[in-house]
Amino acid sequence: MCTLPPENLQIEAAQSWLARARSSLLLARQAPQQGVFLEDLAFQAQQAAEKAIKAAYLRLGLAFRYTHDLEELLAGLEGTGCTIPAAVRESITLTRFAVEARYPSPAEPLSPDELQEAIHLAQTVLEWASQVISSQV
C-alpha cells in the first residue's frame, strides 16, 4: 500500500476530496437524459478517479500537481513508495475524457458500454483511495 508519515496529515482535506470524488461518480452514473452526451458523463467518471487519487496524495501529506493526467498522478505516488494495484493503473485510460471528450469531435460517439467501463474504473480507483485513507487513520 502506501506509507503514511507519523502525523495525521490533512485527513479532513483528503476526506473532502474523496467526498467530491463520490459526487462526481454519482453524476457519472446518472441515467442520461435526452441531450446529455455520454462523453460528459465519462468526464465525471474521470473526475471521480482524479479527485480520489488527489485525496490519497493529501492523506499521505504529499503535494500534487494540478493535472488531469492520471498516469502522471499515479507515477508520482509510486515515486514515493506506494504500490499501485494493476486494476487502479488501468484507470489511466480515463485521462482521455478529461479534455478531448468534452468538446465536439469527429471521433465516434462513446458507447453505453464504454461509459460503464469508465464508471467501473473510477469506482475501482475510489475504493482504492478510500482504503489508502482509512487504513492509515
Q: Roughly what fraction of the amino acids lie in strands? A: under 5%
Q: Identify the overall geometry.
A: elongated
Could you tell me the radius of gyration in angstroms?
Answer: 15 Å
Q: Kindly report the average pLDDT value.
A: 91
Number of helices: 5
**Cα-to-Cα separation, first versus last residue:** 14 Å
**Domains, number:** 1
Helix content: 55-70%
CATH H-level superfamily title: Nucleotidyltransferases  domain 2
Assign the structural class, choosing from mainly alpha, mainly beta, alpha/beta, alpha+beta, or little secondary structure.
Answer: mainly alpha
- Report the order of strands and helices: HHHHH
What is the CATH C level class, in words?
Answer: Mainly Alpha
Query: Biggest sheet: strands, sense, closure?
Result: none
Flag low-confidence runs: none
| Annotated CATH architecture | Up-down Bundle
Total count of strands: 0
Might you state the CATH topology name?
Four Helix Bundle (Hemerythrin (Met), subunit A)
Describe this structure as you would to a colleague.
With 137 residues, this protein is mainly alpha-helical. The protein has one domain (11-135): Nucleotidyltransferases  domain 2 (Four Helix Bundle (Hemerythrin (Met), subunit A)), CATH 1.20.120. 57% of the residues lie in helices and 0% in strands. The chain is elongated, with a radius of gyration of 15 Å.
